[in-house]
Fold these 4 entries.
Entry 1:
Amino acid sequence: MAATTTLKLPEPLKARIAPLAEAAGKSPHAWMIEALEERVSQSEAYAAFMAEALAADRQMTETGEGYDADDVHAYLQAVLAGETPVFPKPVKL
């Protein structure tokens, strides 16, 4: 069920939205809903990325293990070249 809310848009922003919505074949309302959905998805993905990065940092700090940058770069270059390389082994930092 949709919840009703009110947004007070500055006139210059409202004027910028109208042609973009029209070009997309949507009403300004539909265009704004889509824009909000996209922004929420981006923010959620960023939050998940940061949580994963912080967890990896904690694990690295606790275990004292990480990966040699040269090994990681070589692995990524091989993947990009279409090869199936062995994942680098962790090293003590």
Entry 2:
Amino acid sequence: MSIRECRPIRRRAFLTMMAVAALTSLCPASAADGLIAVKSPRAPAETMNRLESVVKQRGLTIFARIDHAAGAAKVGKTLRPTEVLIFGNPQGGTPFMECAQTVGIDLPLKALVWTDAAGQVWLGYNDPAFLAERHGATQCPAVENLKRALAAIAQEAVGP
């Protein structure tokens, strides 16, 4: 291969590396498949309190608020702030389960607030499109409604 033939390959490799670097800066490196993570400018407790308030204001049922760090402390372990809010309502979940009843294993909805190793607070939730793919319901009309609702809830919880 001549030098002239190598340049386009190196340029493509460079552009590919730059694209990967840009994409990986959007979410934490440890983000799981299907997890949408949004940075919060607030402390973890305040972020979770705001999330809980937004969920209640929208008329959703809160089933549980689980403090994993408190649970870890009960067994002598230390865990950075990590809380889960489990919430939902039949109006949003039932249409999703009508498309694929097995999606019920992933409902009600959940949101996680955690602090990463660098001290950044995150609010994360399962992407409904990922859940739809997992359960073979990619054409389900309920997915877009859930995506919009969860994104709006998250933005309101971390916003000004």
Entry 3:
Amino acid sequence: MIIRTVVLLGALAFSALVSAATPSEPADVQAQLRSYFFEAARAGDVPVLQTFIDAHYPLDSQDEKGYTALILAAYHGQQPAVELLLQAGADACQQDQRGNTALMGAIFKGEVSIARRLLATDCNPDQRNGAGQTAAMYAGLFNRAELLDALAAKGADLNAEDGLGNSAARLATGEIRTPASR
């Protein structure tokens, strides 16, 4: 009973801290909240993420690498967290500093069910990262044939090429062009 009470009081204090946080809070408090937010996404801690959502925390805020909570949750295979963030309005099309999206991260890590869920959003299937690569190119490179079919069904151009001349179709066959092969 005592442990349950302590946990409940801790959760209430955390909720109050998140709810009371404003841009005028000291930088260390803001940094700590951001850290909790991104760690909750990485770990799939749905109750903590829900606390941030209830407090109207900016869901599309980015860490120092440009990762959003949705990108982190997708990359780390946290399906319930991905669903919660999408339902709360997180932007599935947002890119990190390298231009990668949550969909690209899910494909890279082999998180097929998460990638399928992200494909159901309104993002352009041919959205490119900083290297000119698309989600379909990731699916081809990492041999995710089932996702290549789903991307094609959504309208992705499997013949689009990156700056090196790699297309999703070419990558799926193992024909990879590198700077040295040009």
Entry 4:
Amino acid sequence: MSSADRAIRYGVVPTETAKTMPGLQLLAAIMDGTMPAPPIQQTLDFRLVKVERGYTAFAGIPKFGYYNPLGSIHGGYTAALLDSSMACAVHSTLEAGYSYTTLEVKINYVRPVTSETGEMRAEGKVIHSGKRIATAEGRLFDSAGKLYAHGTTTCLILSL
């Protein structure tokens, strides 16, 4: 049975388990269903679809229930996809025993997202990963490759 055919489990990986795994291994385990996906992915109905060292991609379909008063998808949905892709790209570079926290996120919204936009893909790529600070960039596209938003993040590397 492929991971696409299996029901996704949602939850939080216990810290005692997470700190024994390199970030790339942990993210791969979440993607393949060995470890639970974080609850935010259930709430906003998006998923981790690709992970490599220094790179992650998340995909989701924006829904009418995410609309703001202006008649488009709330910027928080876009920010959640970009934040996830950029921060997890950083996480994918960490050795066992390390974690991170986001210090700053900057998002540039290029065009509005609607429930008609279709599947979105947020891709995050590490720019720099040091002992204490890492930076990454991200881009949010539709299925035709049209850019909807882009951003950057700065993360603080923590010892568990």
